[in-house]
């Protein structure tokens, strides 16, 4: 960590250049010869990435940033805040501390937080930033978390782990055993240190694959930010053998849409109908959950087809996803498409349909955009149809 970055003149320069092009800046002369130009450019680029993702860091003076990749890979403040609401008690140890965003929020929920980060430079940066952010109850250890657990030798209310894929795991199916730390192998050791463990994984991990590798799972959280799935959270409790609840959250600017159901329990109600007045498309977190029949059962709305994952009703409901008013339902035939869509403008979505969006646009000369939303899908009678809709 270069303390020279904290000089007022350097910080002023970084703040003034945060919105400028890095390639253009790279061609300029370094006004601070005592600091490597690439180091200053990295601060500018990383801070620019933090503007929306980490507004608290962005707005705080004298923050030092690690590589831009570390900023890209870290939790956003919004997802970190969600995680913090899952924990409680006196103490939490983060075995894979990284840039410390999660721990900043954990420190607001527990009295003691320990941040383990084997990269000494990154650990020093996090400790410095915690001082700037006035976090007084988080201690940083620049050591392997396995050794820290043994050295501190105490019972923690929570252990938090964000395993990273090993470099030699590239190209393989995403498995937890291919990550560092190897949570499946170390789980029994972790349970000697805490009864409650929270694991963050990338959305690439298949839920059934995760369940095959882990035990004592109580809740699985699928977290999306503005309809993009960002992470899976696995709540594990020692000696727990009850039902597993799958919880989805789509964090939006003004609200968070949530949905939950018990895994492997048959839904009470699933009905298939032809399109009615309104159409519903689940958000990405629900799509990742696979709880398609549960959506129909819980919201008492009809599915268009077993594999279409679109829903319909005569009365408009509050729904965790997009809602549309169906203006027209047409058959996927040459005459119908030519009459209603060919050479026109529309937003296209396909669900359970043989052609992709690009093929449909090219084939029927449909331009992108506009106020019309068209769903190319299959109805309950296995007929290919197009729903022409207006977004609500």
TrEMBL record:
Pfam families: PG_1098_Fer, Thump_like. Keywords: Methyltransferase, Transferase. The keyword Methyltransferase applies. InterPro entries: PG_1098_Fer, SAM-dependent_MTases_sf, Thump-like. Residues 321-391 form the THUMP-like domain. GO terms for molecular function: methyltransferase activity. The keyword Transferase applies. It comes from the Bacteria. Residues 278-320 form the PG-1098 ferredoxin-like domain. One of its GO terms (biological process) is methylation. This is Class I SAM-dependent methyltransferase. It comes from Flavobacterium shii.
């Amino acid at each position: 960590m270069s303390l020279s970055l904290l000089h007022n003149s350097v910080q002023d320069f970084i703040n003034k250049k945060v919105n400028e092009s890095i390639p253009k800046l790279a061609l300029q002369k370094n006004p601070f010869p005592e600091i490597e130009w690439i180091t200053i450019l990295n601060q500018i680029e990383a801070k620019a990435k933090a503007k929306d993702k980490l507004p608290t860091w962005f707005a705080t003076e004298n923050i030092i940033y690690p590589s831009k990749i570390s900023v890209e890979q870290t939790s956003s403040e919004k997802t970190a805040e969600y995680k913090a609401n899952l924990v409680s008690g006196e103490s939490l140890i983060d075995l894979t501390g990284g840039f410390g965003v999660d721990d900043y929020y954990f420190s607001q929920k527990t009295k003691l937080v320990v941040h383990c980060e084997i990269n000494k430079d990154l650990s020093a940066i996090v400790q410095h930033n915690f001082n700037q952010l006035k976090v007084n109850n988080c201690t940083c250890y620049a050591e392997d978390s396995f050794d820290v657990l043994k050295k501190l030798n105490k019972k923690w209310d929570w252990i938090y782990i964000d395993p990273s894929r090993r470099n030699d795991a590239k190209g393989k199916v995403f498995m937890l055993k291919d990550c560092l730390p190897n949570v499946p192998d170390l789980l029994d050791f972790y349970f000697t240190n805490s009864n409650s463990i929270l694991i963050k994984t990338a959305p690439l991990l298949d839920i059934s694959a995760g369940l095959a590798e882990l035990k004592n799972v109580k809740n699985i959280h699928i977290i999306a930010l503005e309809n993009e799935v960002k992470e899976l959270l696995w709540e594990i409790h020692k000696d727990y053998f009850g039902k597993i609840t799958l919880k989805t959250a789509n964090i939006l600017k003004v609200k968070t849409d949530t949905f939950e159901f018990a895994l492997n329990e048959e839904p009470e109600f699933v009905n298939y109908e032809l399109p009615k007045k309104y159409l519903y498309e689940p958000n990405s977190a629900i799509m990742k959950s696979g709880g398609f029949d549960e959506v129909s059962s819980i919201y008492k709305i009809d599915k268009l087809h077993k594999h279409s994952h679109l829903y319909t009703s005569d009365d408009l409901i509050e729904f965790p996803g997009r809602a549309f008013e169906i203006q027209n339902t047409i058959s996927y035939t040459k005459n119908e498409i030519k009459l209603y869509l060919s050479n026109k403008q529309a937003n296209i979505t396909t669900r359970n349909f043989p052609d992709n969006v690009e093929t449909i646009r090219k084939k029927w000369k449909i331009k992108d955009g506009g106020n019309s939303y068209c769903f190319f899908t299959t109805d309950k009678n296995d007929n290919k149809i197009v729903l022409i809709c207006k977004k609500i």
